Amino acid sequence: MQLSCDRTLFSNAFSIAASAVPSRTPKDVLRNVFMSVTGRGVELVGTDQETAIRFRVDGVKTSSTGDVLLPTQRVASILRELQDQLLDIIVDERTIILKAASATFRLSSEDPQEFPPVPEFTATDFFRVPAPVFRQMVRRTAFATDSESTRYALGGLLLEFGEGTVTLAATDSRRLAVTTAVCEVQGKPELPGKTTVVPTKAMLLLERSIDATADFVDIVVRDNDVLLRTGPCTVYSRLVEGRFPRYRDVIPRSGSVNIPLPVAQFLSAVKQSQIVTDEESRGVDFFFSNSLLTLSSQASDIGDSKIEMPVEFDHEDVRITFDPRYVAEFLRVLSPETLVDLQLTDSDTAAVFRVEDSYTYVIMPLSQDR
Question: Which residue has the higher pLDDT, 150 or 148?
Answer without folding.
Answer: 148
